[in-house]
Amino acid sequence: MSETLQTTDVAASDADLLGQTAIAVRAAGSALRERFGEVVRYRNREELMSALAANDDTALDILRPRLTRLRPDAGWVEDELDGGALPPGEWWVVDPAEGNVNHLHALPEWAVTATLVRENQPVLTAVHLPLTGETYTALTGTGAYLDGRPLHVSQTADLGLSIVATSQARPDEDEKVVRRVGSSITAMLFDALVVRTAVPATLHLLNVAAGRIDAFWQFAGARADLLPGALLVTEAGGQISDAEGRPWTPQSESLLAAAPGVHAEAVATLSR
């Protein structure tokens, strides 16, 4: 079999796999939507963790068997706080309730994500927003889409005219990282038009891919937070690096996703 035909077969297989992955995240999202509406009260960290786990388990009970059937030999990552490189091979990187704490507080910013990583490169991703019914998808080399409509990053070429965003450091983050987050927000307040700060990271990255905001940055972070959005932004024509402008990998200590016209300015601001 020729190399060209082999490549075509792999692409077709991955396209079919992406369609099935999108169906799986929509099903998990429907289950989480049924649990959404009332603020979940908790009195201590133990109760908080229990409530978060209940949402995760609801989605995972749907996602894990479906995705495992699709790729039985792929590894499985569901800890949204894990970071760094993965072992060789294929891995499902899943965030069953991205923005889980927002869900508990009856806030609308949450999603279900599933990303297939092959040899430490994201190959395909599906992100579903249950409250709007939107599903964002990307497959390497084929573009990024919102419910089948192509996505494109913004054409903005001036950081001073840009809406930018970041998310806060994760719980129990190192003090140095927390302070770096704060100083970066201050720097952007001087240089950008509007600065948005909220969790989860994935929703900001969706907005970069869709051209709604012009740049997103984050220090530290985890694979499940960043891989889906990084692939969507790249496939939508955006530029991905670390905060210093170096190539980004899951081992990087920061991420910057931006429209090409403002990427260099954003790096300069974050590097001050």
TrEMBL record:
MF terms (GO), sorted A to Z: inositol monophosphate 1-phosphatase activity; metal ion binding
Keyword ATP-binding annotated: no
GO biological process, one term: inositol metabolic process
Gene3D superfamilies, A to Z: 3.40.190.80, Fructose-1,6-Bisphosphatase, subunit A, domain 1
Cofactors (names): Mg(2+)
Segment forming the signal sequence: none
InterPro entries to which the protein is assigned, alphabetical: Inositol_monophosphatase-like (IPR000760)
Residues involved in Mg(2+) binding: 95, 225
Keyword Magnesium: yes
Source taxon at top rank: Bacteria
Pfam families, A to Z: Inositol_P
CDD domains: CysQ (cd01638)
Entry keyword set: Magnesium, Metal-binding
Protein name (database record): Inositol phosphatase
Source species of the chain: Streptomyces albiflavescens
Source lineage: Bacteria, Bacillati, Actinomycetota, Actinomycetes, Kitasatosporales
Gene encoding the protein: suhB
